[in-house]
């Protein structure tokens, strides 16, 4: 379980997260919605230990991400897919995927690369396995990013606006992969602006506004007129997103 | 009159001088690359005290004439530190230090040119600092640095000619000896200059080949 308790984070005088409480249980798909600057990406960065907390506590399967000795164990249990892919440009798709399994999990290189090719095949990229990131389209890069995360066999997948840099066609390719992962029972925390997709695959939806958690509701309840939609801020946000 | 004529042995002398220049260049390049890279890593990890010392030493070395550094090492070490050094030792110390200072500057900018997003990605997948340095930073930093490093090494090759002033019998010193004996400066210095030119072109050629290999990942081969 990912447990977030009273998390606070500020950059200078700007408070970005203000007392966030959240639990993500095994098998859940939790979508985090909110307008730009609401703290969604910062929350993901706090979960994977990239940002130091100013208060509160985050544990992944009881390993505290704020404690250096426990962070590596927490990171073995979760994997992140980034908005701008963050692939290593000097490595091929296969090498990008196999790097962490070889270096961190100590899987023999041949085995890790064979696993990487299997993963690439599963996302329709077997023909591009030996291409460098510069030779791939945005959608292909993001699919490599997803494979890189899956290669670590994580219990939790953290996805930070992974379709926001893609055009609609590429977005649908990537979302199809996520839908399959959700169907297979992969636990995911999904920061997104894709409202309809979040509605389709999420078990719960969390809404952040100005660093505060406004609601944390099962998906159906979130979109119900007497549920999340009853909150003026959420109704306003959803209305604006649908217009866009 | 016959004393001023060129002999076949002059070719042997030139080859010996060339060998000394090349050996010093290679030795000081290897030492300089190692020390300069090490200093850059110290700076990258912001190791307290050491990072500041390295910055000051590099600043002094790259902003003072090599000839002055050479004299300070050759005459200063025996006078002030009671350490006697041979001309070759003084040349190795000076040129290595000078090369290291410039390698440091190039390596620091090469490391800083690597996107933090890649380092963050490696961190969240659990790679250690050493693994990140070895697998992510070093290969890319080398690709970025190889162009400026080639330029630096071509320049450092020419700088080796200064060591003749403290008595190292390198290519320039041999040129000086032949010039004094034959009194044919235009021929002697044209030959010596030609040999330096060929060596410089070889260094540049090797650097360009290596750069092409290291930057293979930037080649666009179409979708």
TrEMBL record, chain A:
Transmembrane segments: none
SUPFAM superfamilies referenced in this protein's UniProt entry, alphabetically: P-loop containing nucleoside triphosphate hydrolases
A Pfam family of this chain: ABC_tran
MF-aspect GO terms: ABC-type amino acid transporter activity; ATP binding; ATP hydrolysis activity
Topology versus the membrane: Peripheral membrane protein
Subcellular location: Cell membrane
Any coiled-coil regions, as ranges: none
Domain ABC transporter as annotated: residue spans: 2-235
Keywords: Amino-acid transport, ATP-binding, Cell membrane, Membrane, Nucleotide-binding, Transport
Keyword GTP-binding: no
Keyword ATP-binding: yes
GO cellular component: plasma membrane
InterPro entries named among the record's database cross-references: AAA+_ATPase (IPR003593), ABC_ATPase_HisP-typ (IPR030679), ABC_transporter-like_ATP-bd (IPR003439), ABC_transporter-like_CS (IPR017871), MetN_ABC_transporter-like (IPR050086), P-loop_NTPase (IPR027417)
Family: Belongs to the ABC transporter superfamily.
Protein name: ABC transporter
Species of the source: Phyllobacterium myrsinacearum
Source taxonomy: Bacteria, Pseudomonadati, Pseudomonadota, Alphaproteobacteria, Hyphomicrobiales
From TrEMBL, chain B:
Residue span, ABC transmembrane type-1 domain: 18-207
GO terms, molecular function: transmembrane transporter activity
UniProt keyword Protein biosynthesis present: no
Compartment(s): Cell inner membrane; Cell membrane
Membrane topology value: Multi-pass membrane protein
SUPFAM superfamilies, A to Z: MetI-like
One Gene Ontology term from the biological process aspect of the record: amino acid transport
Key words, A-Z: Amino-acid transport, Cell membrane, Membrane, Transmembrane, Transmembrane helix, Transport
Gene3D superfamilies named in the record: MetI-like
Record's keyword annotation contains ATP-binding: no
Transmembrane portions of the chain: 20-45, 66-85, 91-111, 132-154, 186-205
GO-annotated cellular components: ATP-binding cassette (ABC) transporter complex
Family recorded in the similarity comment: Belongs to the binding-protein-dependent transport system permease family. HisMQ subfamily.
NCBIfam families tied to this protein: HEQRo_perm_3TM (TIGR01726)
Record function comment: Part of the binding-protein-dependent transport system for glutamine; probably responsible for the translocation of the substrate across the membrane.
Official protein name in the record: Amino acid ABC transporter permease
């Amino acid at each position: 379980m990912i447990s977030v308790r009273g998390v606070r984070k500020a950059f200078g005088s700007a408070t970005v997260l203000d007392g966030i409480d959240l639990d993500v249980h095994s098998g859940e798909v939790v979508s985090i919605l909110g307008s730009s600057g609401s703290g969604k990406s910062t929350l993901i960065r706090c979960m994977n230990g990239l940002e130091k907390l100013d208060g509160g506590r985050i544990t992944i399967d009881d390993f505290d991400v704020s404690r250096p000795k426990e962070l590596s164990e927490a990171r073995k249990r979760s994997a992140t897919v980034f908005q701008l892919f963050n692939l290593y440009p000097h490595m091929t798709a296969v090498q990008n995927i196999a790097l962490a399994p070889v270096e961190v999990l100590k899987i023999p290189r041949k085995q890790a690369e064979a696993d990487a090719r299997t993963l690439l095949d599963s996302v329709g990229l077997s023909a591009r396995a030996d291409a460098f990131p510069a030779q791939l389209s945005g959608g292909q890069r993001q699919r490599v990013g997803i494979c890189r995360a899956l290669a670590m066999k994580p219990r939790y997948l953290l996805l930070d606006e992974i379709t926001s840099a893609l055009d609609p066609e590429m977005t649908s390719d990537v979302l199809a992969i996520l839908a399959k992962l959700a169907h297979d029972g992969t636990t995911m925390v999904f920061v997104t602006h894709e409202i309809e997709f979040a509605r389709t695959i999420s078990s719960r939806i969390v809404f952040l506004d100005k660093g505060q958690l406004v609601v944390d509701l099962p998906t159906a309840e979130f979109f119900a007129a007497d549920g999340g939609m009853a909150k003026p801020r959420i109704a306003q946000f959803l209305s604006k997103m649908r217009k866009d | 009159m016959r004393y001023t004529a060129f002999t076949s042995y002059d070719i042997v002398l030139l080859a010996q001088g060339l060998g000394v220049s090349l050996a010093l260049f290679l030795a000081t390049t290897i030492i300089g690359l190692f020390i300069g890279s090490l200093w850059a890593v110290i700076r990258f990890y912001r190791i307290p005290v050491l990072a500041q010392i390295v910055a000051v030493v590099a600043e002094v070395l790259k902003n003072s004439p090599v000839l002055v550094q050479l004299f300070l090492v050759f005459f200063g070490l025996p006078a002030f530190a009671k350490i006697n050094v041979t001309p070759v030792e003084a040349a190795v110390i000076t040129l290595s230090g000078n090369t290291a200072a410039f390698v440091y500057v190039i390596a620091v900018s090469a490391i800083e040119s690597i996107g933090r997003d890649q380092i963050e990605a490696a961190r969240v997948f659990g790679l250690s600092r050493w693994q990140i340095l070895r697998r992510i930073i070093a290969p890319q930093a080398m690709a970025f640095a190889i162009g400026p490093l080639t330029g630096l090494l071509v320049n450092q090759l020419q700088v080796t000619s200064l060591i003749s002033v403290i008595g190292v019998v390198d290519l320039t010193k041999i040129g000086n000896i032949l010039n004094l004996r034959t009194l044919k400066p235009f021929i002697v210095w044209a030959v010596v200059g030609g040999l330096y030119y060929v060596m410089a072109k070889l260094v540049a050629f090797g650097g360009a080949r290596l750069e092409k290999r290291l930057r293979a990942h930037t080649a666009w081969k179409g979708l």
